[in-house]
Amino acid sequence: MKYADRMKNMEDKALLALMELAEAKDVISFSGGFPSPETYPLEDIRESFYHVLEHEAKEALSYSSTRGFARLRELIAERMEQQFRVPCEADEIVITSGSQQALDMSGLLFIDKGDIVLFETPSYLGALNALKAYEAELVEVETDDDGIGIDALKQALDTYGERVKLVYVIPDFQNPTSRCWSQDRRIAFMDLMAQYDIPVLEDAAYSELTFKEEKETPLLGYDRKGQVIYCGTFSKNFCPGLRIAWIAARKDIIEQYLVLKSFVDLSSTAITQRQMAYYLDHYDLDAHVSKIITLYKERRDLMLQVVAREFPKEVKYNKPMGGLFLWMTLPEGKDTKELLLRALAEGVAFVPGGSFYPGAAKNNEMRINFSNMTEAEIVEGMTRLGRITRDYLLE
Amino acid sequence: MKYADRMKNMEDKALLALMELAEAKDVISFSGGFPSPETYPLEDIRESFYHVLEHEAKEALSYSSTRGFARLRELIAERMEQQFRVPCEADEIVITSGSQQALDMSGLLFIDKGDIVLFETPSYLGALNALKAYEAELVEVETDDDGIGIDALKQALDTYGERVKLVYVIPDFQNPTSRCWSQDRRIAFMDLMAQYDIPVLEDAAYSELTFKEEKETPLLGYDRKGQVIYCGTFSKNFCPGLRIAWIAARKDIIEQYLVLKSFVDLSSTAITQRQMAYYLDHYDLDAHVSKIITLYKERRDLMLQVVAREFPKEVKYNKPMGGLFLWMTLPEGKDTKELLLRALAEGVAFVPGGSFYPGAAKNNEMRINFSNMTEAEIVEGMTRLGRITRDYLLE
Questions:
Q1: Distance from the B266 Cα atom to the nearest Cα atom in chain A, whole angstroms
Q2: Domains of chain B: residue spans and CATH
Q3: What is the complex's ipTM, to 2 decimals?
């Protein structure tokens, strides 16, 4: 039995096995990238399910349209306008089963073997692996705190020419660094991209999780040519288990995604789409998002306090202004995979930074989630990890 | 913006547009392939959702594991043993978002550009298109009422040699013909396949919908080498909107699917997996299936009566012994796409047979669903279609 060529070297299996250890019950795990389940607005969600099951049960248990439930698409379009000042219509949207499916379908839509995808570095490997499955060559572009480097990007675009089929970016509080692109950088990026006929895949998973006063305008808002494919989701600001996300793009591009959606799973789960629409129509998602932002900000602050107190000065880190992650850098030559082994032995988990580089990885970085553990666990876990790190750096 | 090569000639758009007409409210549509929503056991489904939302809400709204909810996989394994006498374990199963996703991932797993997929003819184009998206070459194998032709299959296997990467079959009441392979043919097929190291993709969507006394053993039950990849689903015997299906296969193959599942959508909807597990644990799916089989058999009988009375003798058809479809053949030279245009003008829809041949199509066949319309609609719709067919054949 012969697997397709793409299955070769697909995954860092050793790391996967290690990460499974992080799932053990007694581990304080800073490795996930989830919202905190205790924040779910359970009563409102229950009421929405009950309503759907009482009044729309037959429709909710039958196939949804491939495009997705019409009322949900309308509500998402309204929300994009209200939240991000981006005009959007219901027929410029297709519902996907999580953002991951949007990324997978983007590979299917744009990538032939050997094509090039440009991306920020470090970046979300789940997206990059999905694109690599279509035998894309992944080429990283130097990135600083304001976003992807414009000169570096221009150079890559010109060097690789027509081989570049996609630019994948996460401008808002990206996974893993929580970096948020500045407005100037967004404008400069779109000005440059407008000179090329290449789609921009904008992963907006964390865009609502901001601790700043104002939300940044998404790249879609600076898109004059209709070249941005915007991937939104309710997984980070609401509940990931519903698997409700969407692509917003130019109508003719959406039509292509629809063909693929019919191949990859026909349609997304009907009942969760209707539940989500009912929730948006009758409850206050903005209030929920405010609540979790306040909580996550408190947890970030607490984590930064513990880190300042417990970690050696050689460890560098940012102050996340949104998102779910703290990104820490050990001195050169140190290896966070080695640190993880020691941490797991003492019941603490995180994700080594090498997991966010598809090619040659920097090994001295790590991603620490601050949204998902309680205050007590943050203090206990980060105190332990601080001590383990001190000991490791002393060797 | 350049799409991947696979997007060329992907769909018969003209037919898609035509089929959208079939969705209009006042059309009597025999075009769907769904169970009848009035049969859903709504009270039991509601109770299961209520239970999950009361007692497992946080888990049900968080990410499921990539493999799928453990209790659901156990129950599916038990059910495969109880229904089909096929030993199966929970870790030989991965939950998929509908069978369509299992088919899509099979393309991703096995197909490189130019590889060959062998299949029965006619067959389910949704599967074949999903495989074609991975740039497979689709090669049909002559099939008779007992199943795929063994000599023809052997010839194809030997002609194409190592280029053949997959054999896709639907042995039970297949879409579109409702043909069910005989036991002898199943054994002969697996005997032949055992001589090759090629995976068999067994699509078992309709396997429980049998009007016969005994269920046939699936190919998986005759599999000595672990080469069968079995795709089961709750979409046809229960509710398609839940999007719950599964792959059962050898453990090492399941591990490969798991890697891909993490790329295509991370995990399936958590709440519907838990609802399905609770339903299977506390209610009687067998009793539900018996009930819908009785109903569909009555509708099949009624449809055959109307057809015998209203259709001209030149129109040939089988007597479906299970599944959801009646397959009808007009005299050579007639075109069921032309017939569909006339039928739509009088408010009746079906699927022209050409939609089930990926290559050179026979154009004089059609698929008529008998599960989804009420008795009154069957009489009215098939009487109309009989008259329209008579008029068309007289020309």
A1: 7
A2: 5-40+287-394 (3.90.1150.10), 62-282 (3.40.640.10)
A3: 0.95
